[in-house]
Protein 1
Amino acid sequence: MEQWKTVSRRTILAHDKFLTVEAHQVQLPDGQLIDDWSWVKTPDFVNVVAVTEGGQFLCFRQVKYGIEGTSLAPVGGYIEPGEEPLAAAKRELMEETGFLAARWTSLGDYLMDPNRGYARGHMFLAEGAREVAAPDADDLEEQLLMRVSRQEMEAGLNAGEFKVVPWSLAVALALRRLEQNGRV
Amino acid sequence: MEQWKTVSRRTILAHDKFLTVEAHQVQLPDGQLIDDWSWVKTPDFVNVVAVTEGGQFLCFRQVKYGIEGTSLAPVGGYIEPGEEPLAAAKRELMEETGFLAARWTSLGDYLMDPNRGYARGHMFLAEGAREVAAPDADDLEEQLLMRVSRQEMEAGLNAGEFKVVPWSLAVALALRRLEQNGRV
């Protein structure tokens, strides 16, 4: 199978640091040209499922502009320009919760939209987390930090209470990994 | 916790049927106004993890413009205007594989981006699938339909071979559901 080729690209919307849209001229393997293939760029991000030394999960109840009502959410945020994903994950865990984790496991990184890009999400499991500071998040949204059991995470995932695609993915992958490692 | 309010919205990019961008004026609970909050609209979509009567999983090896190399992928596609998500799921399964499934389970629907919307992904598990026709997909991409074992799906998920956030979520949720239902 052959990749599609990017022949040229031009910016058609430079909104702010959170959103740029490009139009690409794309060449298919059979030579066919598509002139106006849209390609969307938003910041890459991390999501972190954090488990405390005592085996509890750090989890938010929060509001977000796009979500009706509230949602459960793992730790997460945008990667800063030039920042490594793991460094961003550690920074977001500290800023949002004040916790420091002893063991970090990558759960992979994934593209949001196979057609139009959008962003890459880097998923992490953080174990052995302990509280070392007060949270210091600069997010505009209200959020309530909770410590919940594995059973509550499972139930929340099953019920669709993590209402965002990458949030549910982070939780599902973390629960799988903990089970596979026998750390249920 | 209080929702943010949309005060007004205007279209700032109407690219094609696959992409519209709006700028919203948004009011925060404390009264603060944000003038240029970007909101991105692409079509809602379905992903379907299909299991045959014989217990094999239908899975693609495919190329996509945004993906380097190839990726494993479940059945999936855009919901047509006015179409119900389950109807879209059944249509995509038939078009992409020629299979009809006896039992359908919703695995929930999830927003792609809690800040900027983007699209809603509806996830399904389809069981008891049997081949009734030849595939008739109108997708531009090359894709190879495979029947794989549960172990191969598990290994692919663990290795990050489903390279897209919603694809990995569909697979992770389907595997969970099958395990919970004792249909391993």
Note: Chain A has a mean pLDDT of 96.
Protein 2
Amino acid sequence: MTSRESPGTPSVASRPLGVAMIGYAFMGKAHSNAWRNVASFFDVPVFEQKVLVGRDAGQVAAAAAKYGWAESATDWRSVLERDDIDIVDICAPGWLHAEIAIAALEAGKHVLVEKPLANTLAEAEAMTDAAKAARARGVQSMVGFNYRRVPALALARQLIAEDRVGAVRHVRAAYLQDWLADAESPMTWRLNKETAGSGALGDIASHAIDQVLFLLGDSVTEVSGRLHTFTTVRPGQHGPEAVTVDDAAWATLSLASGAIASIEVSRVATGQKNSLKLEVYGEKGTILFDLENLNELGFLDATAPVREQGFRRILVNEPDHPYLDAWWPQGHIIGWEHTFTHEIRDFLSAIGAGEAPSPAFEEGLAVQRVLAAVEESAAAKSATIQLVQPTGATPTKGA
Amino acid sequence: MTSRESPGTPSVASRPLGVAMIGYAFMGKAHSNAWRNVASFFDVPVFEQKVLVGRDAGQVAAAAAKYGWAESATDWRSVLERDDIDIVDICAPGWLHAEIAIAALEAGKHVLVEKPLANTLAEAEAMTDAAKAARARGVQSMVGFNYRRVPALALARQLIAEDRVGAVRHVRAAYLQDWLADAESPMTWRLNKETAGSGALGDIASHAIDQVLFLLGDSVTEVSGRLHTFTTVRPGQHGPEAVTVDDAAWATLSLASGAIASIEVSRVATGQKNSLKLEVYGEKGTILFDLENLNELGFLDATAPVREQGFRRILVNEPDHPYLDAWWPQGHIIGWEHTFTHEIRDFLSAIGAGEAPSPAFEEGLAVQRVLAAVEESAAAKSATIQLVQPTGATPTKGA
Amino acid sequence: MTSRESPGTPSVASRPLGVAMIGYAFMGKAHSNAWRNVASFFDVPVFEQKVLVGRDAGQVAAAAAKYGWAESATDWRSVLERDDIDIVDICAPGWLHAEIAIAALEAGKHVLVEKPLANTLAEAEAMTDAAKAARARGVQSMVGFNYRRVPALALARQLIAEDRVGAVRHVRAAYLQDWLADAESPMTWRLNKETAGSGALGDIASHAIDQVLFLLGDSVTEVSGRLHTFTTVRPGQHGPEAVTVDDAAWATLSLASGAIASIEVSRVATGQKNSLKLEVYGEKGTILFDLENLNELGFLDATAPVREQGFRRILVNEPDHPYLDAWWPQGHIIGWEHTFTHEIRDFLSAIGAGEAPSPAFEEGLAVQRVLAAVEESAAAKSATIQLVQPTGATPTKGA
Amino acid sequence: MTSRESPGTPSVASRPLGVAMIGYAFMGKAHSNAWRNVASFFDVPVFEQKVLVGRDAGQVAAAAAKYGWAESATDWRSVLERDDIDIVDICAPGWLHAEIAIAALEAGKHVLVEKPLANTLAEAEAMTDAAKAARARGVQSMVGFNYRRVPALALARQLIAEDRVGAVRHVRAAYLQDWLADAESPMTWRLNKETAGSGALGDIASHAIDQVLFLLGDSVTEVSGRLHTFTTVRPGQHGPEAVTVDDAAWATLSLASGAIASIEVSRVATGQKNSLKLEVYGEKGTILFDLENLNELGFLDATAPVREQGFRRILVNEPDHPYLDAWWPQGHIIGWEHTFTHEIRDFLSAIGAGEAPSPAFEEGLAVQRVLAAVEESAAAKSATIQLVQPTGATPTKGA
């Protein structure tokens, strides 16, 4: 690219957008899959999978070859200096989000960062400031709450927005996993507060809270919460180590609309593998969802005659459903990984249109504030914490 | 009663109707439960549980005391002679149905007979002739296809009759049990053609076929069928004995409307306990049902916008649903046994109103003709059998 | 009865036990059904349905006739004076429980009282004192947490007691109904704190909490809770009236074992009719239950090879299952009402054996203490409340 | 490639395998997706997506660009002449299968052909002869019954092979769709016997029958069947046109083992989108499956104590499950399209190992014989047809 007008502005799209991705573990694999396939299903701006960045030169080179990236690199800073890179997709661990994202935005790269936005509220705030400044220069950013792109949840949001469930009274949101159910399962960086920030709270409650905000288009005013670690010591490489993050978390959230949401998340819910369960109860109807059956949406229309009311299983696989016209004929279900394909599609489309994609960092920050309030309440024996809404906050709003 | 006007006419209802029941095994227990409770929930003509009849004097006396019958007796013929008996409920084994029912009808007693109507077509025809003659004298009769009184199935029939599923194209009916899955399960009279007539065919395919006719209000024109016995020898009291009835049966039925029904029944469907599954596919919608969840009806309305179509689980427990206003508040499910409570209620109500209850013996005979055709086809290597509809047949019609 | 030895001791069982029931509304109808049928299915001490008590002479007489009671009466005090009454079943509203129960116990009558034990903690304590004193004289008492007698939940308790789920980590208990979802649904005594004590909390959270204690055999040490009324004014007979009880309640309970339970109950969960949902997550397995499918128990055995692990739907309808040998062959499901039949059976059996039935009033009081703590915490913005366990408390233990 | 030894033998693998695909409609899109992604998840021989073949030059060029093919072409014969093409994947309509496949095999190309193998039995036999001859020269071939690669069904086959369900007694196989439920849905080549061969029979009963053979490792000895067209005239481009294929089909199959399978397929089963339902009932257990929830397998182990038996929902998403170690962490479900990814993986692995992949054309022919027998029986009013097993037949056997 030769025609950059000024530092920190996006490049002119006279050539395919160049994409760099940082990180090649679980999320890197999932995002790569999305980049590799998005253009085979959706009309998106032309782009190239330029470079995959990781610390181990050999491993990152192998991953790049396997996942469809033209090159690999070990220094993310040098990648940010490249003129042929327009987009940076950050799949590195949470403690690196702020540093990389802010640098990338300042370098004029559009940024997609995995959720949660950051490990701490301070980092999230700094990132949001950087994103706001960059946005003014036409540099876009987005936080990767990929479950907004589950077609069934996008449909749920449509139904709620169209008043099909009426005024929402309460929401039940749970995210249940069991990969720590075995008390002998070993210590990892994910169980250390230094590296992970928090446990189930940041990892999966963040998704549950984001869904509440996304589905209802609402914001949180008060929080009461609790955290608990059932297994406090786990085998480490050199003997027993202390687990310093939560295994499970509970909260009730007061929403600005007057609705109340309960949140319950766990990594020790034996038998629940990846079950994000959402229930939205309104005056006119109800929405049910479970991520383990992500192609289905439960819906009850309470305005129908009582005689024929019932929870309906909508197989969200019709061309009329969000994102689905790109895929297969009806009834041919899609997998979890395509939440990322849809995310990349929406991210690229927004960049192509010169618009700000959603969820913005502000929305990631809103989730982060709730997470912090849960921690604060938990430390205060569940006493209710008021959330001060930042003045001029970008309202929580989805695609 | 002193004022009987002529032999074989029903008694004048100047006193509670006197009820006699014959048989006190499984069906006797279930019917007794219905007689004991029906008046506590429904407004029915006043009656008394007069006498329970069985072969073993001691056992029948104990059963009478336990199940709420005032007296017991061992000779059903003597009971038919009693003036204080107005109703005879026949729960004896199938091979006794014809003899008792015809005698009772000739004695002017209203008759309820368990399904299937009889063990043979000839018996069923004789019973139907007797019922027709008795009906002309005001003596009523009914065959106990109790599943017509499952509220969910009564609702299904309403929805179909109201054209909510449109023209029906095909029906899938299965009745799966597993009480013979163990090849070492012993020989019983139910596995002997002499005593049982047939196996799964008469016992449970009869229910499945009756439901097809009941739900659609249709009749059968052609049958192709198959029977099979997986375990042909079972341990008897004095060594191995031959099983002479079917373990499972399959059939396709052509219906007068142009619809096609498949029937599949089994007593060796491991893990299926009492699963009568019904699926009715029409131009406008679909009905699903499973007896193991008998308080629920599945319904899909294909006239709804595609985006929100889906199978709906109607919890058939609302006051608006058939029979349910008599029971508990919504969501408090009822048990299998109340299919009989509803049956007795409808039977008594019809008698009180001087009307013919449904299903009439003609309807039992219609099922019997299909069963016979399945046997005939099975013996002819599944070749299709035409059913001749009797001229002037009472159309198959439900409550 | 002529031979009463001393005031306040139970009568000698030289004749059938005489039963009086107070109240003939929803619970009166349900209990009557149980009394009318229990002896037809179970071997219990001989008893007679002597007298039904209610305020309106005409209505109670009609109810007595319909539900199988020999007589009716309008003054419960006079009934307590009758020597032929041995058992008093209290189905009157909660504000009458304490007065009637204490008087009955003092009169030497065995007492069954509907749940929750009382409207206030003070009443519950007084009742428990009375029960303790009476028990010493051989006079028994029981509180009617009927869901302990759902066969599936009795099985769940067995499996947990047999260590099949291992050490329990957390429990999710919800009781969701929707009969108040319509904001125009009228005011009733149940929505007035004076008469009802509380709303969803006392009515249905009491069941959820009792199940946690019953299933785990555990006790509560700390509570954080919240109450909310979504519709604060409803149409009364003479214009709008204030709703003074909760529509919904949330709580987290710390248990003595170290487990944590979440409780969520609602009367405005649109589409949920009577859904008591229980999930028990242990180190070795998991239990799932939903009252709308009360014949089923979900069970996951995490000690099985991973390849074949999964939630299992046990159709709790086998002779091997609790209470089920009395009923029908496998797969013939029973209804909600038989939770009471089983309750009466266990109550009568204990009386016959001269033993104290469970749940004792102490167990009802334990639930009441939790309810009170939820209210206290809710009033203190969800701050955690410590529960002081009474010294010498009867441990929470089930049948 | 320079070193071809003789005509009709496979090329030496001194360079990446060159792949050509013929057809770019639904199946072409699905197969392309598999080729594009297989190497990102599985270790397979190195290959290149060389050329996509279609009739319309412009459209096929666009499809090639979109789906990851280096070039496009319009003449499949010329592609067969290319030395750099080693593999031909035939996704063209059924009437072209025989001609292309035989030519490709004769040209020494490994061939994957979509199911069903052919439109007629004669074509299928010729193809099988060609495949057998080619196999002797080291040229491999496979028919694309992709559902063999659903992980849940691969697991089902394992469990059956390990005797976990015991001797199988009966199988219920249904494949229900509804894309023709609307009687006004227009005429297409798929509804014309000339072009499509048959309707639901060849299209979806072929899958159901293949699964019976695959899961049980069994063969068919006798068939009784029925075909029906519910909507016989549909709107064509120039007015009404006759539908000359079946909308639905029914059959019972006798298997060599003594088991009996029922088959029922439909394109007018309103509300059923893509529901291949399989139920395998054995002496020791049962398997259940539904393609609309393809990440789940139902399993009942009848050797467990009765008290705890129940249908188990295995979420087939563990590393221990077939194909799953390549994908995401547990509980992150995969989509329908990866049945093809697994198919291509197994096909490539077999080629790399110089082994014959399964299902071989012989297995496709076995299905075809059953389809032909269903048609023959249907034409003979469901009379039973004997199947002669070809001498020296390759036994039906899976991966």
Note: The first strand of chain C starts at residue 17 and ends at 22.
Protein 3
Amino acid sequence: MLAGGSGTRFWPASRRRRPKQLLPLEGERSLLQTTIDRLAPLVPVDRVWVSTTAALADEIARHLPALEASQILVEPAGRNTAPAIAWSLARLPAEIRETGAVAVLPSDHRVGDAAAFRATLRTATDEVARHDRLFALGVVPRYAETGYGYLELGEPLDGASGVRRVSRFIEKPDRATAQAFLAGGRHLWNAGMFVFRGARLLELLRLHAPDLSRDLDEVALQPARSAELYSRLPSISIDYALMEKLDDLVTLPLDCGWDDLGSWDALANVLPADERGNAAHGDAVVVDGTGNLTFAEQGTIAVLGLSGIVVVRSGDAVLVAPRSAAQEVRRIVDQLAAAGRDELL
Amino acid sequence: MLAGGSGTRFWPASRRRRPKQLLPLEGERSLLQTTIDRLAPLVPVDRVWVSTTAALADEIARHLPALEASQILVEPAGRNTAPAIAWSLARLPAEIRETGAVAVLPSDHRVGDAAAFRATLRTATDEVARHDRLFALGVVPRYAETGYGYLELGEPLDGASGVRRVSRFIEKPDRATAQAFLAGGRHLWNAGMFVFRGARLLELLRLHAPDLSRDLDEVALQPARSAELYSRLPSISIDYALMEKLDDLVTLPLDCGWDDLGSWDALANVLPADERGNAAHGDAVVVDGTGNLTFAEQGTIAVLGLSGIVVVRSGDAVLVAPRSAAQEVRRIVDQLAAAGRDELL
């Protein structure tokens, strides 16, 4: 479980010490908790490891009281997914790393249909156990999204239920390309979910990213300098460091109500709404308004005569914006940072 | 000082136990405190009496620590200005009531130019002392307001500096009439401020509203039943019960930046604003927006990409509305009341 990320898109609910994966965006449980809950019928909690940074480790332990301390893997610093995955795999129990199927999963996404998600994951882990395959799971596109990368589907594998080769990775496409992908049915959203045997991934990384592998060995050998050395690692994604270079990467299509919840607007689309399309988390009163999102961690939000806005109350801050500007919340955070208002970040 | 009023137009800052006059809308001091501060050079605080109801008396005493308990006059119930004024006058020290000039003033209005206000008030009190006149002060109109009543100016009085007769009271006019009043220069806004000798007003009331006067006598004679009897009094304004019936009512024009602060929108017009017209009370960040009002009693309000809205955070509630709908805040309050959400009222 990758849970070291930080971000600003859910400010003021998300803060430096409480990034998105620790927010209870949909219900009472945080996205991280929900991610682990969702896996439970397939992956018992003693087989879950959470990778994060020192700044978040205590809070994550508080969110996940069922985990042993050894299941929280603290990266010396935050350096994107390639270092995080390699560092974490090296810290798994040897038997797990050598023989088990490992699923690397983001901890801040939404899955509407948990059973469908587990069924696909189960197929993938079976294929890893039987054939040592390496999966990048992809999501069946529901609209022409230009904000995601895509996986291009190659040939189906003989005898493997639905498994297909990944013929290439495609960076965020332009609108026309995204529409063609949607219409063509030969592309999946790259959701950052991978399934593989741990030792195999480390071998491949040693082959395709030898510098990174060596540097990580060095960090492990000098624990007193780990933060310093780790901070010097390149901030590089596992896609870029490894996955895009592989010839035998395979995929399975996920059709499970997945959403990466990239903004308040995305959350508004998945929260239950009243008959006027007003979605609410916490207490709200809306008079003469439609299509609003109210998110009250405490107290009550009242909206009068406005539509299509998002109103968030979290701790010491209130945010009001049109849903169409929800992607720009960073501008508020940047302005607060420039003004030295660290207590609000 | 009439401080018994309640209202909903400044919800969520105003609540049942904290009506508008107790709100620090412009600065750190409540409107009631500011009203008394403004008078201080002319009326020492030991000559101020505050009329209110039992529900507000403790909070008012807390706002005005310089007042003796005897200066807070608790009405048995809230029954509009005619009963409130008559009841309060009867409770003043006899010498004050018989000989002093009494100014009846609302405690929830704004005055921009306190010196101008005091100068006019001083002229009026002098005229009361010298000639036992009865004043309804009026405000020089600055725009064609249809929400106020008007005083029509009659003949100037000989030898009295600027004092003119009131030829009649006019109820809230339509737009065309209000525009004609503004252009004509012969009408003033009725601001609910009166100056007179107390005993004279009670005599006139006995003449023009004998039933009310008798009923008030009865309340005074039966203190054990005062709440019950007082509650049965007609809810009637002093304008309607008395002032409109007088032939010798006079006025002076107030030109002192008066505003009755009838809504959040009115407050937005008088609070200091930044160069983009964003007015703020408390902490705020506005990115990409103009002409907003933010009112944060606690914490920080951030507005992104919206203009002309009002955002209020007070206690357990947040209100968001376009400034143009600020007059309709009651609709939120009504909905909360209908839902039994008394803790928010």
Note: Chain B has two domains: 20-259, 264-344.
Protein 4
Amino acid sequence: MELRGQIQDIGHRARKAATTLAGVDTHVKNRALMRMADRLVESVASLQEENEKDLKRAKEKGLSSAMIDRLTLTQSVVDEMADGLREVASLPDPVGQVVRMWKRPNGLRVGRVRIPLGVIGIIYESRPNVTADAAGLCLKSGNAVILRGGSEAAHSNKAICAILQTALKKTGISVDAIQMIPMTSREAVHEMLRLEDSIDVIIPRGGEGLIRFVAENSRIPVIKHYKGVCHIFVDESADLDMAERICVNAKVQRPGVCNAMETLLVHQRVASTFLPRIAASLQESGVELRGCPETLKILPHIRKAESDDWDREYLDLILSVKVVKHMAAAIDHIQKHGSMHTESIITSHYQRAEQFLRDVNSSCVFVNASTRFSDGHQLGLGAEIGISTTKLHAFGPMGLEELTTTKFIARGDGQVRE
Amino acid sequence: MELRGQIQDIGHRARKAATTLAGVDTHVKNRALMRMADRLVESVASLQEENEKDLKRAKEKGLSSAMIDRLTLTQSVVDEMADGLREVASLPDPVGQVVRMWKRPNGLRVGRVRIPLGVIGIIYESRPNVTADAAGLCLKSGNAVILRGGSEAAHSNKAICAILQTALKKTGISVDAIQMIPMTSREAVHEMLRLEDSIDVIIPRGGEGLIRFVAENSRIPVIKHYKGVCHIFVDESADLDMAERICVNAKVQRPGVCNAMETLLVHQRVASTFLPRIAASLQESGVELRGCPETLKILPHIRKAESDDWDREYLDLILSVKVVKHMAAAIDHIQKHGSMHTESIITSHYQRAEQFLRDVNSSCVFVNASTRFSDGHQLGLGAEIGISTTKLHAFGPMGLEELTTTKFIARGDGQVRE
């Protein structure tokens, strides 16, 4: 069969599986998730054998040690995948939940009920653990999934997917509920992005290049976030001890992720007090600072920020620092340079806290907390399938609920329209 | 300025207006809506003058009397527009509503708050009243709107839009919150559909042709419904008096709309009793029936349904009729031929009612009620901006809430991530 036909066939089987999966009871799905977890742990040896093939190729291709690290299926990575699946089993099932129900004047009882989206397409890069994580979340939310991982993890992904499918056997859930596009060519992704009749939404997970490629080539709606240029604004009324603690956490705790702080905005009235101490703390942790002219007056030894620094997602131990006149200037800067991801204000001023929460147009807006909390687990969604920085369907971290939609139901006793 | 530049300028102004509109208090928006209503009523004479130009051209072009009807701004049409705006003023403001708030183990108080989508693009056909309706709903939900009506109503739409903008003056809301693309060329729509940085969502309202054109040419997410092929299934246990009343209502009360019944499915056990009486009732109302072979055995004088009849949205006094073996066959038929719009079961059987509600994959699923209730007003949303038969963002009738999304807020007191 030709490539197009093969990919279409995967789509048709996913659509069919989704139709029955929508009605499967929670305990059946949970049992399947637990079996998936058990099978992964039992299969560490064979998984590592397949993983070895990917690692060998990665080393031959001279991939960076960070990349090879992400690619490696250690015992603990496999255990974490299994734990992730067990955790998803323990979360409440959103499907069938009656979000609201009300009675109309004519006696019609109208409600909105959560239903799965249908078929989710996940396109991702190097980490093979996404295979199990995404499959688990889609299954629990009643969706069929079509996975397309990076070519560098092809053997590992295929092996994980095969184990998950085996675990579905005899559970009453179709094995077609979890499928993978095994072809590694870019043409295969193109064909996947044309399955508008079989896939309801595409979620790309990876670098900006991947996400732009998917967004520009997909006929299917895409839920996406390009980058996270997150800001912290230290207000004049901030508790500076707290500000220091939060800023260090937001920049240093894990600099390579999208919810790390990239730009620090400091109110001019506290700049001369706060900047020397935060600079000392951050430099102690190896952070390179790049400052605006006002910052340089206080911290003359740091590098000058260039105009493109304000738009950069460093994903590294680098921070741009700007002194602002007042909160309005901070919010303006965020509107202009932010990525609608996550911003936090450190303040002890009631009105300014409230105004920041209201006026900042990002998917996560915090007061006196680290930007690093912008994460499905940390915010209490239980799990995270991805994050959206566009407003349609979902905005911010996405959990199980964001993999569903609602339909209207109405229970009548003969109502007709006048 | 060139066309592209002019359209981009409209987009930029809308984006700017949206930024401030998001924070405008409800009573300011309500006052603006009331003024818009008053100004429309005061301006009937000048509106009708402009409308006359459209009507003259429509008659010259030989448009159908139904089309001319829809185009005509009578006193009562203008009054209805004004009443619509006043009704929107009376509805609760979704913006700022805290959907949910919870506390994390570390004390962080996390919530989800409704915010406007930003800028909505509405592309519509002949009815000029959509201009006021859509502008009112977008304003109330804190969104800027860019309207693009059909060329046949160009003078009327322009006049209505100018009145609405005048009403915004001195309210504190930017007049750029309501804008219209005045150019009537199709190229102007193409340019509008490229404003992915300025428009957050496009809602097309009109025939299938318009909607397909928009969906295929837009770089912006589109919320759409192609057609409504709505079904009623009369179960063997149905109260046949009720079934007759509902079927007549669903087919006859307003046959030209998307929530009218297009196909009647009848359980074989009641076919010989029910079909003769429903046929008599419907034929009395001038409905033409087209039957499957089983139906023809009972109603030998009606026309045979061709295979494409099951997929047709007649929007007319025509009904296709099929006898089915059992409910599962009815649901199969709906899956295959339905448009995920609205389906209703008439039954007195508890389990079958529940199963139908659960298993039918449409945006509205009813028990013992007319499909005609599939409408924002009728379901209690207060108003309707459109209907979606795709699952992303909204599914079914869309009210004010569907013109919003939520952002995460978190109130902390120094939390950092471990």
Note: Chain B touches chain A through 65 residues (CB under 8 Å).
